[in-house]
Amino acid sequence: MTPDALSEAYDFLLDINVKGSFFGAKAALEELQKTNGNIIFSVSGASFYPDGGGVWYKASKHAQIGLMRQLAFELAPNIRVNAVAPGGTLTALSVIPPLHPFVKIVDNDTKASSIKKRNPLQIAQMPEDHVAAYVLLASDEARAITGEVISSDGGLSVRGLGY
Question: What family does the Swiss-Prot or TrEMBL record give for this protein (predicted)?
Fold first, then answer.
């Protein structure tokens, strides 16, 4: 792997996951201030555990957690900022070219089997499995929650990856 390929993958992931989150929050800030709204970032189980997505993905997701917590601090008391950390989820997304050298590509059947083996609920999550976490954080029922992450990971967070 060349230094240029490493740098390209780094820029790509940090631009999407960190800069994208920051500039999305910044773009919405004026309207959020008017409505006492809230921000919900999508982070990842990779924000907490090794093995999954590669080194730059992992770093970008850790950075998103730091960004979320700092914004929760700076925007309080009028705007709440939280995150949802989905665990392994079956989607139609695929690895994009700058990341091919850094990430092992597997088909959805293999991915589903791996996800089921890792989490205590033994389910391969689908995107709709995470909806309730976002709805809760967006609701007034969560008015006392800011700077927090809901792990929607089939229970992986109670086991970790070191089992």
Answer: Belongs to the short-chain dehydrogenases/reductases (SDR) family.
Q: For residues 118 and 155, what is the distance between their CA atoms, to the nearest angstrom?
A: 9
The whole-chain average pLDDT of the chain stands at 86
Domain presence at residue 163: no
pLDDT score, position 100: 52
What is the extent of the structural domain holding 142?
A: 3-158
pLDDT of 120 higher than 80: yes
What confidence category does residue 9 fall into, taking pLDDT thresholds of 50, 70 and 90?
Answer: confident
Looking at the 3D structure of the chain, how many domains does it have?
1
Three-state SS string across the chain, please?
CCHHHHHHHHHHHHHHHHHHHHHHHHHHHHHHHHHCCEEEEECCHHHCCCCCCCHHHHHHHHHHHHHHHHHHHHHCCCCEEEEEEECCECCCCCCCHHHHHHCCCCCHHHHHHHHHHHCCCCCCECHHHHHHHHHHHHCHHHCCCCCCEEEECCCHHHHCCCC
CATH number reported for the structural domain that contains residue 65 in this entry: 3.40.50.720
Q: Give yes or no: 57 in active site.
A: yes
For the segment 58-83, what is each residue's pLDDT rounded down to a tens digit? Answer: 899 999 999 999 999 999 999 999 99
